[in-house]
Design a protein that fits this description.
399 residues, alpha+beta, three-stranded antiparallel sheet, 15 helices, globular
Length: 399
Amino acid sequence: MRSQVKEMLSGSGHGADPYPAYARLREEQPVRRVRLREGVHCWVLYRYADVKAALADPRLSRDPAFALPAWHATDRGRPIEDDADLGAHLLTREGDVHWRLRKLVFPAFTARKAQGMRSRVQEIADSLIDDFQSRGHADLIDEFAYPLATMVICEVLGVPVEHYAIFRQWTSNARPDAAAGPDPAGYLCELIAARRAAPSHDVVGVLVAAEAAGEISEAELRSMIFLLLIAGHEGSVALIANGVLALLADGVQRALLRERRCPMESAIEEIVRYDGPMELAAWRFAKEPVEVGGVVIPAGSPVVLALAAAHRDPRRFRDPDQFDITRTGNAHLGFGYGAHHCLGAPLARVEGAVALATLFSRLPDLALSTSVEELERQPSTLVRGLFELNVVFTPRTSR
């Protein structure tokens, strides 16, 4: 169902390249009504100006309490979160409640903290490449991007790093036929109990202490840890994989990086714009009738913001379909805008920059082992990610 919803929202049945369909919709139906299920419609915005304004519009709430009753019977893209009652976190809360939750964890995700993790991210990236470089082939999702991003967020949160392999079953990167992982609610209860018995100053410890002090509820405690675990790695995995694909497809851009004529940080911003990890922003709900581009969106309606379409809008970006890592003024919306700007954006930037720089410097002849068209994409409603990314390169026995 999730992949079908995504195709309806993008207007394309070809997940490998939805951008031509987005271009057509951006010009012909910039504010489009889409039928999801009997009695349930949503509105999709495709133009940059409309998407940016909507991201900061207080009339469009992330809180599903404002949705029409029929919405709650649809596939909302986060079945584990919904079924396990883990949705009481800062992404679904507004105003004072949002800021109360956000300020508890913000100190762990500042740009300074992220830069302080750079050497550790580098150690993890090198260690992962050490494990497969002598083979001459690898799956960069299973063997690099996923373990790197998950191990980093585990260390930031204070979750046992050896548990990183279990979290994949809770994300959009889990294959439908994969063995079920531990129940998230049960796992989180055990983690919280262990931290209560042995207090700490890491993020989980801070949240557990906040709950003990009455600053957050038990539901908010579980939901916040769940959110940080999942959101803390899911986007980074897709960012790394999409970045590999974009750079493998363009030798000119790779040469700019190899010859150090462009910093990797600039490349990361362009990857997020050109083919970013978030194709669609998370659902919003109209608290009251909202007019966009001359169209009135009724109160209670679900609203989807097509980031991938906005990022190719020629009204905002010169030559938007061109991958250009030297692009200046790259005001993409890939990490959000306004109150819900991505808390983990600084860490994701560091992870992406270190991961891609290390891959292409240590494995300079890196190449896909299949065609782009053969790559299997996740069915996630929001994330633009891959199940696997198989590559080949000249085997090496040492760094």
